[in-house]
Specification:
The chain has 581 residues and is of the alpha+beta class. It contains 17 helices and seven strands. It has a five-stranded mixed sheet with strand order 3-4-5-7-6, with helices on one face. Strands 1-2 form a two-stranded antiparallel ribbon. Helix 3 (70-91) runs parallel beside helix 5. The chain is elongated and about 115 Å long. The two termini are 30 Å apart.
Length: 581
């Protein structure tokens, strides 16, 4: 019970963050890991690197703010970046380099997002001016934080910064020109299902970029392969087989780049593979097992394992038998965990599908039963009245023609009411009633006493009826609806089946915590077969209504003759499922 509110809160937080917020959070976590580890090393005063955090957190907050107020947030971000640079310069803290010299991952991502939102949400002139301010603040940070040692990173910073700036502007303009779609985009749906994987892969990729920065071209090639592997793992939920092939080829290309570039010792590898590709491979195995058949999953997992084996043989620790054995055991362990996880998710998905199908089937059955009861209780009631009136007119019409005219009027009224009930039933079945409502349940009764008297006054059953009522105004609606239908069906049965009946007594009264309903006729207790036969569903429907409200029903010959229907409906504690009765 506690997990559901937590999941709802997490889902709401993710929807608020969006893809840009998730990536930014991953970048901030990456900065925290790097800065916290560097704060207590031998380079510089202990803890001095912690002074980088206020600027990083404030600049990241400006990026989140930019989603609603891009111009104001971007100018505030430029001020924060300059202020952070001054703090770093005064304190002699040591900023680290990601893609841009002396600019952290979070600052790089935050700046990219600010430019993107400026061109997406603001007008061209003010967006360009604000971007110039951000670029100027970035240049101040690059040169102001570096002292005199910036030449080694100048070319990398200039090229990388220009590429990031171009991409951010292009994406912002493209998003601005795109048509506004009210439905949720495919990217948002993918993120909603894959956010833990997206966050983990993004964090691993940022850490890998940090290690690859000093290596040069080979390091850049490996990072690109890792980025492709991460994307393949995320997109595999849509087409697992295709992206499994892409991931296998990417692993082979990455292994070749590591081997040919001789970067094995200077790059963080796990069994010859970068950590991002290891995570992507595990995720791919889980996805294949979860979403494909056993034969398909087995074939692609073998191909993926072959690519991993090639990478391990080229770049893994295979200098002696013990290291090779340990690597094989570790690979088998990870593969087993991934397969087991995939099987668990597959079983859970199957169980969830069964639960959903069962719930849908139960709901459809309940709706069919409700419609069947309504059709029998309402429409059959009016049709029965028409038949009874026609029989009476046929029997006495030759003796007194005035009775025929009166009967025709009764038949007309019953026919009009039957047509109205049929139209309501058809509208309900077609789904034309307002969402979440049922037309019959709403129109069944607003005043039980008045509706009961109307049924009695209509005399469709052709037997004089005496009614006694003691009903409070605040009777629960589900009880009132069922009481009306029970009395209606009982009177219908009198008209259909009762022989020799000259009086029907109807009593609906509150007795303690129950509503007591009595419908009794003074016939001889024998039931005649009505014209057209009887479906036999009348008593079944009455029992269903009573059981839904946890009441009691008794129907049968009365001790003194005739037929007696007696019902007790609890006024409290009934089920809430009778909303469509």
């Amino acid at each position: 019970m506690v997990q559901r509110p937590v999941r709802l809160k997490v889902s709401a937080a993710l929807q608020w963050l969006g893809l840009s917020g998730i990536v930014l959070v991953a970048a901030v976590l990456c900065d925290l890991l790097i800065i916290l580890s560097a704060s207590f090393d031998d380079a510089g005063p202990k803890g001095s690197d912690l002074l980088l955090l206020p600027g990083i957190l404030a600049f990241s907050a400006c990026a989140l703010w930019a989603r609603s107020q891009p111009i104001t947030a971007s100018w505030a971000g430029a001020v924060v970046l300059v202020g952070s640079t001054m703090l770093i310069y005064v304190s002699n803290a040591l900023p680290y380099t990601a893609l841009l010299a002396h600019i952290s991952f979070a600052e790089t991502v935050a700046g990219f997002e600010m430019v993107y939102f400026c061109f997406r949400l603001a007008r061209g002139g003010i967006a360009v001016t604000t971007t110039i301010a951000l670029v100027s603040a970035t240049l101040i940070a690059v040169f102001g934080r570096s002292g005199h040692n910036y030449a080694d990173r100048a070319i990398q910073t200039a090229i990388g910064g220009a590429i990031l700036l171009t991409i951010a502007i292009a994406l912002g303009i493209q998003s601005r020109q795109a048509e506004v779609r009210p439905e949720r985009s495919a990217a948002v749906e993918l993120l909603r299902h894959q956010w833990p994987l997206v966050g983990g892969l993004t964090l691993a990729l940022f850490l890998e970029m940090f290690e690859a920065a000093p290596i040069g071209v080979a390091g850049a090639a490996i990072v690109i392969c890792s980025a492709i592997a991460a994307g393949s793992a995320v997109l595999a939920i849509r087409r697992p087989a295709l992206w499994a092939v892409v991931l296998s080829l990417t692993i082979l290309l990455s292994a070749a780049a590591v081997h040919l570039g001789h970067v094995g010792l200077g790059y963080p590898l796990l069994g010859g593979l970068p950590i991002t590709q290891v995570i992507a491979g595990i995720s791919m195995v889980v996805t294949l097992v979860r979403y494909t058949s056993a034969n398909v999953a087995g074939g692609y997992i073998i191909g993926l394992s072959g690519a991993v084996a090639v990478a391990a043989l080229l770049n893994g620790p295979t200098s002696n038998d013990s290291s090779l054995r340990a690597m094989v055991l570790a690979a088998l362990l990870l593969l087993g965990i991934a397969v087991a996880t995939g099987l668990y998710f597959k079983a859970r998905d199957s169980e969830r599908d069964k639960t959903v199908r069962s719930a849908v089937s139960d709901a459809q059955t309940a709706e069919r039963m409700a419609l069947a009861r309504e059709l029998h209780d309402v429409v059959a009631h009016h049709v029965t009245g028409i038949v009874v009136q026609a029989q009476a007119a046929k029997m006495v019409g030759e003796k007194d023609p005035r009775i025929v005219v009166d009967a025709l009027g009764q038949i007309e009224n019953a026919g009009v009411e039957a047509l109205a009930a049929m139209r309501r039933l058809v509208r309900s079945m077609r789904g034309d009633a307002p969402a979440g409502t049922n037309e019959f349940s709403e129109q069944a009764t607003t005043d039980l006493a008045a509706d009961l008297r109307r049924i009695v006054d209509a005399e469709n059953h052709r037997v004089p009826t005496r009614i006694e009522l003691d009903i409070p105004a605040d009777l629960p609606q589900e009880v009132a609806r069922s009481a009306l239908r029970l009395v209606q069906e009982s009177l219908t049965n009198v008209g259909k089946h009762a022989t020799g009946a000259t009086l029907v007594r109807v009593s609906v009264k509150v007795r303690g915590e129950e509503l007591h309903i009595v419908v009794a006729d003074n016939g001889n207790g024998e039931h005649r077969k009505p014209p057209g036969g009887s479906s036999g569903y009348g008593l079944i429907g009455m029992r269903e209504r009573v059981e839904l409200l946890r009441g009691r029903l008794s129907a049968g010959p009365a001790p003194g003759g005739g037929w007696l229907v007696e019902v007790w409906l609890p006024l409290t504690g009934g089920t809430e499922g009778e909303s469509t009765a």
